[in-house]
Specification:
Elements: H1 16-30, H2 39-55, E1 58-65, E2 68-80, E3 85-90, E4 96-100, E5 104-109
Antiparallel strand pairs: 1-2, 1-5, 2-3, 3-4
């Protein structure tokens, strides 16, 4: 008879599908609804975006994506109000990010 050796006992790691399901449930509970902005807030964000574009100042961008509100720091590179589009360069990886203006929640100067 051959000895099994030393094996760590992992009683709950027998079903990896269970971890995937639990992770999905936790993420689903953390989701929030997209905030609805009034006209004044959208106008103020538009002015801030245009000013940041012309002065090349860094801004905090808060946007809604997949049930979460995410805040990033970056520089505005392009704004198209009619096309509902803007492009910013994030501060961390210095990558260009293309985003819809309708996803934007808040814009503030750093």
């Amino acid at each position: 008879m051959e000895h099994r050796g030393m094996k760590k006992w992992r009683p709950f790691a027998t079903m990896p599908e269970q971890y995937i399901g639990l992770k999905e449930m936790v993420n689903k509970q953390a989701e929030v609804a997209q905030p609805v902005l009034i006209e004044e807030q959208m106008e103020q964000m538009n002015f801030t975006l245009i000013e940041a574009l012309h002065t090349n100042k860094q801004v905090y961008l808060t946007y809604y994506k997949k049930g979460q509100c995410i805040t990033e720091t970056g520089l505005i590179q392009f704004v198209d109000s009619l096309g509902d589009l803007f492009i910013f360069i994030d501060d961390v990886f210095e990558l260009k990010n293309k985003m819809r203006l309708s996803e934007l929640i808040d814009v503030r100067f750093v």
